[in-house]
């Protein structure tokens, strides 16, 4: 494979990398590194991960305990397991920023530039269902794609927003323990993986990107708690978009400092000297603590990341201007709740946590994550886990419910196995002839009603059984395409 690198990119990298440049350029003659990351929300129990193709789990990514290099020719996106959200396809160096953020269960985390959700789903795996994830992207269509991946991953404690950093910082001042800013960038580390990035490179030049990154980051730090950690990352190599953005942020802000990245020994240091005369000044040591992932030094396409801590004694950010009552998220009416409760009891064994905060949103019943401030006035894509929808006085379980529970939580289930022809036919939206004796029923349940369809024990979606047929409830927008 030969990639024609933009001439000014080659010239700049040659000057910066000097004797290392030939090795760097040679890396563009090798195939892109593809990776897969297991979803701990679905593969955390003993034996679950063993069901995934062994060849895809042979080569671990050194900086990500759930990440693997894919062998050439592997097509995990064309496997029923993909539709169960048990893994995500992610370029290996893109797995590093969330590992550096060091998310713990119970944290309040913001992923500010989150679509399509590779890193948000990684964060959700680390939260393990406890704490809060606010996943945001300012692009409306990309925010929808983000929601789809959050639902596919079976995340129950995430809110998806479609907002600007400025509007969010007014609402969430000093609120988050951890923030990821995986910034839009000129994408120099994507040339091998995605030739479209080469075409877009001139349109999204380094100067334009660095201006955007500085303004996003300035808003992001306002939302960080004293003592909180922020990771800034890009998939580009230019110093202006990396060390330059961090230098600008740290300048005159003694409450912020870079810290040694936990996995620093695996990566190369930041390059303050590339900022030129007077560019880094007294910040040179701080910038050397940031990390660079180079395609000629590691197996990955390349990334930059800086870990920044806000001093625990930093003055609190301006208090949030959130309204006390959230009128944008009304609680279900008594009749809505009873319709929902009746159907949910027909579908799932798990207790319905009535004392949690439930809200109706766009015809959906959603479980709002604990500790969420008011979202009133913000562009909300989804305020929590949507467990079902109301239609003409009736309630139906959602696809997000199917993907967010375990097979044993369902009252009725049926498993065809990933290799069974019925599994693909189910994912294509077909009705399936199925005997009542093929269903697994909870004690006391009859065969008629909602059935969770699973593959190798991993939920794929709902069907409705009646008179020997499974009527397909798989959402048309999610269907299998050849
Ligand atoms: C590098 S991508 C993020 C990739 C993502 N973190 C993942 O791992 O899947 C950058 C994202 O930032 C979004 N974006 C651009 N400008 C933004 C802004 N001002 N505020 C929030 N998001 C922005 C873009 O729409 C894009 O989806």
From TrEMBL:
SUPFAM superfamilies noted in UniProt: S-adenosyl-L-methionine-dependent methyltransferases (SSF53335)
Gene Ontology molecular-function annotations: methyltransferase activity
InterPro entries: Methyltr_RsmF_N, MeTrfase_RsmB-F_NOP2_cat, MeTrfase_RsmB-F_NOP2_dom, Nol1_Nop2_Fmu_2, RCMT, RsmB/NOL1/NOP2-like_CS, RsmF_methylt_CI, SAM-dependent_MTases_sf
PROSITE patterns assigned to the protein according to its UniProt record, in alphabetical order: NOL1_NOP2_SUN, SAM_MT_RSMB_NOP
Binding site for S-adenosyl-L-methionine: 113-119, 137, 182
Entry keyword set: Cytoplasm, Methyltransferase, RNA-binding, S-adenosyl-L-methionine, Transferase
Segments of this protein annotated with the region Disordered: 311-336
Entry's transmembrane regions: none
Alphabetized PANTHER family for the sequence: 28S RRNA (CYTOSINE(4447)-C(5))-METHYLTRANSFERASE-RELATED, NOP2 YEAST -RELATED NOL1/NOP2/FMU SUN DOMAIN-CONTAINING
Protein name as catalogued: RsmB/NOP family class I SAM-dependent RNA methyltransferase
